[in-house]
Amino acid sequence: MWFQEVGKGDIPLVGGKGANLGEMTNSGIPVPPGFIVTSDAYAVFLEESGLVNKISAFLDSLDTNDFNRLDEVATRIRQLMNSAPMPQGIADEIVEAYHKMGDGMVAARSSATAEDLPEASFAGQQRTFLNIKGDEELLWAIQGCWASLFETRAIFYRVEQGFDHLKVRLAVPVQRMIQSEVAGVMFTAEPVSSDKSKVVIEAAYGLGESVVSGDVTPDFYVLDKSSMKISDKKIARQPWSLVRNTQSKNRDDSNIKVPIPSEEQSKQKLSDVAIVKLAEIAKRIEKHYGFPQDIEWAYEDGEFYIVQTRPITTISDSTQSVGDEIEAEVILSGLAASPGMVSGLAKIVHDPSKVDIVKEGDILVAEATTPDFVPAMKRAAAIITDYGGRTCHAAIVSRELGVPCVVGTQTATQELAEGRLITVNGSRGEVYDGKIEQDEEAGGEVERAETRTNVYVNLFDPDLADRTAARYVDGVGLLRAEFIVAGIGKHPRYMLDEGKGDEFIDNIVQGLTKFAKVFNPRPVVYRATDFKTNEYRNLKGGEKYETVEENPMMGYRGCARYIGDPEVFKMEIEAIKRVRETYKNLWVMIPFVRTVDELSQVKTLMENEGLVRSADFKLWIMVEVPSNVILLDKFIDVGIDGVSIGSNDLTQLTLGLDRDN
Fold first, then answer.
1. Collapsing DSSP states into helix, strand and coil, what is residue 132?
2. Catalytic residues
3. Distance between CA 35 and CA 42 in Å, rounded?
4. Are 307 and 175 in contact, with CB atoms under 8 Å apart?
5. d(CA 611, CA 605)
6. Cβ distance 562 to 481 under 8 Å?
């Protein structure tokens, strides 16, 4: 699929990266052109090569904390995937698209269906192949991307995040290669303090990979978002840049470090005018998504290109202070990359194969981190690096893990002795000798704001349930079914016809229980499935049961689908009943109700199956069709306890406007 054919709603088909590249392309953001090999192709490859059962056998009962065994299993799986033949039909389609794009140099980039999400970035877990040219090399790179879904670090990270290995699929965006003169990363909020009034840009000579990996310390620019004035600059000395290796014939060695002339090393990488121009693009992207973004960019021949955007996974609800000055000797300083202060023993790791020396509560010290360091980063109390900026791998993952981090110290691995007791202040970018006690009264109590109404949250991911339930919220006003069903990955009617209806029900029960349990006794309002036909077609078996509709948004969906296929809806009702046997705080909301009669029919269907309104079971409807507003009294007369206003669909259907157009 070409970038212009997809958008942010197509994550199951093209992954997080692919969906965002399509979304930006359609929004007029300067994105290098390209196409996406969809996750369906990956699924077909696994099925036709007979690898599913073999991979499952390797991963069953694998202890991911046994790093040596984990590495061995990951290597074996990748060998199987790289040696399996690619289905000819898929290979032919890829080559045809590549020629249509104009051949030439491209980048093949992994885009997993569980990636670049608001709650988990999966930063750097899969591979990217740069400087790819020619049919054979492109097919090799795409298969390499597929195999990288089983890198050691990716397997470990999925287990830690609670994702099923075989339910995560991988798409591969293929886009024109930008040979950047300057590249880097920018945030539309200050990543450490969560100050949303700032744009933060990091820039380095050459390809942006050196910034993301933390191999160089980039220039650091801060702009005020409203005035677009540059408020802070830190110019870093850069001794080398990463560029394409035009001499290499080795596929895995397509880039090379080239020395930068001494008189150029300490120069500002972007002019002030260019910095402001780049920040304006960042503001456009944030405005489009409505949420702070983590953006990768490149600069070539006087033009900026955006090669990736994703939500900042670590943004907090309020701006954090950099912390009071500590009355202690600063033995090292760098960039504040993740807030907090903690003490521990320094463990210096030069090679990711040696990460086992880092025990629970130690301070990980490294030149820079890569995704292979993640097992140690999970155990570490804090992280220090020689190189990198606030948007490098060490910084992003530290913030996601919630551990203090200082990057860009230049000399930590040389100056800190193995086993030395130190204190890391990630809020100020400082490291102190020995153990420094924090003033527990300095922060004070966080005052809870009281509201006259209950405050409910919208949720979709079971892995966010615990964290959200711990906040000052009164319940879940909209629990979306789509993420749970997408995680199952199979069309519900297909599962029913295959005799696997109980498996579908069990998966729904597991997902709903996670929410109902942690929020109990606060209500959890579950919106029953509202997949559209095009979304259902993307699930396994979906093409057999779903027609192709010109406008799925106004097609066979919501309440009408329950009436048209009551057997599938009964599976959902059964799952709700099972959860309510233990947790009475689970309520139900019916989506996309077009007519009063539809609501009456669905309500009767629920009552016949034993789901009846009561003091502890409430029934809501989504108000997203103008008829709901016009006939609201009549809907209430049928018997409902509440409504949730679906402002997107209601606006579109009232004004005849398409939000994606």
1. strand
2. 393
3. 15
4. yes
5. 9
6. no
CA 1/CA 409 separation, integer angstroms: 44
Q: Which pLDDT does position 137 carry in this prediction?
A: 93
Alpha carbon separation from 646 to 159, 533, 556, 621, 643 (Å, rounded):
34, 19, 18, 10, 9
- The b-or-e profile of 568-606 (16+ CB within 10 A means b, else e) is bbbbbbbbbbebbeebbbbbbbbbbbbbbebbebbbebb
Helix runs in 235-322, H state only:
262-265, 272-289
Tell me, rounded to whole angstroms, the distance of Cα 95 from its chain centroid. 29
One-letter amino acid of 575: A
Mark residue 199 as left, alpha or beta (left: phi above 0; alpha: psi -120 to 50; beta: remaining): beta
Q: What is the pLDDT of residues 497-517, one digit of tens each?
A: 999 999 999 999 988 998 999
Among left, alpha and beta (phi > 0; psi -120 to 50; other), residue 263 is: alpha
Token pair for 492: 């519900």
Long-range contacts, 456-460 (Cβ 8 Å, 24+): 456/523, 456/525, 459/515
Which positions ≥6 away from 563 have C-beta within 8 Å?
598, 601, 602, 605
SS3 for 483?
helix
What 3 state SS string does 25-63 have?
Answer: HHCCCCCCCEEEECHHHHHHHHHHCCCHHHHHHHHCCCC
Residue 660's pLDDT is: 64
Could you tell me which of 641, 508, 524 has the C-alpha nearest to residue 570? 508
Could you check whether the bond before residue 523 is cis, i.e. omega within 30 degrees of 0?
no
Quote the CA–CA distance of 406 and 338 in Å, as a whole number. 7
Between β-strands 475-480 and 128-132, what pairing exists: parallel, antiparallel or unpaired? unpaired
Distances (CA, A) of 390 to 295, 337, 373, 383, 407: 13, 5, 17, 13, 7
Q: What is the pLDDT of residue 324?
A: 62
Count Cβ atoms below 10 Å from residue 543 Cβ, excluding itself.
Answer: 15
CA 56, CA 165: separation in Å to the nearest integer? Answer: 9
Specify the DSSP element, H or E, that contains 430: strand 430-433
CA gap 547, 108 in Å, rounded: 32
* Neighbour count for residue 425 (Cβ, 10 Å): 27
Task: Please list the ranges in the chain whose pLDDT falls under 70.
Answer: 114-125, 161, 246-254, 313-324, 438-449, 463, 659-661
pLDDT score at 118? 44
| 582: Cβ contacts below 8 Å, ≥ 6 apart | 513, 516
Q: Which residues contact 300 (CB under 8 A, 6 or more apart)?
A: 178, 179, 180, 181
Say which DSSP state 213 is in: H
- CA 506 to mean position of chain CA atoms: 26
Q: Are 343 and 421 in contact (CB under 8 A)?
A: yes
Please state, in angstroms and rounded to a whole number, the distance separating the CA atoms of residues 296 and 306: 6
Rounded distance between C-alpha atoms, residue 422 and residue 431, angstroms: 7
Residue 463: what residue type?
D
- Res 122: pLDDT: 45
Angstrom CA distances, 450 to 27, 454, 455, 472, 474, stand at 39, 9, 10, 10, 11
User: Is the C-alpha dihedral spanning 379, 111, 21, 484 positive or negative?
Assistant: negative
Nearest residue to 396 (alpha-carbon basis) of 161, 213, 242: 213
Query: What is the per-residue pLDDT across 42-96, written as a single tens digit (0 to 9) for each?
Result: 999 999 999 888 998 888 878 877 777 888 888 999 999 999 999 999 999 999 9
